[in-house]
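Contributing new records

If you add data, match the layout below exactly. Sequence lines come first and carry their own label; structure lines follow with theirs. Keep one chain per record. Anything else will be rejected by the validation script.
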Amino acid sequence: MKPATQLDVMILGREYRVACGEDEKAALLEAVAFLDSRMREIRDGGKSGGVERIAVMAALNIAHELLRERKKPAAIAGVVVDDAEDAGRIRRMSAAIDATLTAAQERLF
């Protein structure tokens, strides 16, 4: 496990210090940008007042979207897979097959 680093981020004009692994930095910054955008949409829509309420509303909206997406069956190469674990397993197998075929093709040339 790599040591955590401290990262200062801005969300809705406020600075927060968060810890994350170096290999997670890009994903964290993407999440920060996404959350900041969603909170600005809520604030600019005039739907709520304080930062805490805006954060809760953004969290509820994002959680709702996540749960709705989890309930959808995953489609992989035209095959519908209802179980997220099976979908992940199929994606990993597909990636392994692609890597093997690519390596074999490169040896031909």
